[in-house]
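Whiteboard transcription, Tuesday session. T.W. wrote the structure tokens on the left side:
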């Protein structure tokens, strides 16, 4: 009988311990669910009214300066290409050409290409995008920026970007100038490796 009582007491204690552990786990899961729901509600409120973000939100971490410079350069190149494609002026405005030269020079984050190569590419890009209907300026800007930083690209990636750039210019009606741009970009990619 003593063995039975001892065994019953051990089983009861084990069951009680399991129930306690279950309740603790259940309480933790409930708290995590409530926190998740509160965060989802905060995100939904911020999306619904971005002018009044929740004050409890953590401040945004400062951006990566290299990433910010890259995004700015791509946006600047895109603006240059858009300006040339919408321009009807046969001689390109000197300020627009200077802006393109500056943006192309700023594209290389590491080793810089020779300035003569940049000037030749600028002339060929102006010829390729000037007055052209709807070139894919954002993709073109991304590709040009990437090729100015060819040290970060594999040979396959570089080939893919050059092919895509040629397709963009050809589709926009600048097939004759596309070959010159591609040769210039190949040279710059080699110079920046």
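and on the right, the sequence the group agreed on:
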């Amino acid at each position: 009988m003593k063995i039975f009582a001892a065994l019953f007491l051990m089983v009861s204690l084990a069951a009680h311990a399991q129930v306690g552990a279950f309740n603790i786990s259940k309480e933790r899961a409930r708290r995590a669910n409530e926190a998740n729901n509160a965060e989802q509600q905060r995100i939904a409120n911020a999306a619904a009214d971005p002018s009044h973000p929740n004050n409890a939100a953590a401040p945004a971490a400062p951006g990566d300066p290299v990433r910010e410079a890259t995004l700015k350069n791509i946006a600047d190149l895109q603006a240059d290409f858009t300006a040339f494609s919408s321009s009807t002026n046969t001689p390109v405005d000197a300020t627009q050409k200077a802006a393109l030269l500056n943006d192309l020079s700023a594209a290389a984050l590491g080793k810089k290409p020779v300035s003569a190569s940049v000037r030749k590419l600028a002339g060929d890009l102006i010829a390729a995008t000037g007055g052209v209907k709807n070139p894919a300026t954002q993709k073109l800007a991304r590709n040009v920026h990437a090729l100015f930083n060819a040290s970060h690209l594999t040979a396959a990636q570089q080939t893919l970007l050059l092919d895509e750039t040629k397709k963009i210019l050809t589709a926009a009606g600048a097939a004759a100038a596309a070959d010159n741009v591609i040769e210039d970009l190949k040279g710059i990619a080699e110079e920046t490796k």
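Someone added at the bottom: The longest helix spans residues 2-48.
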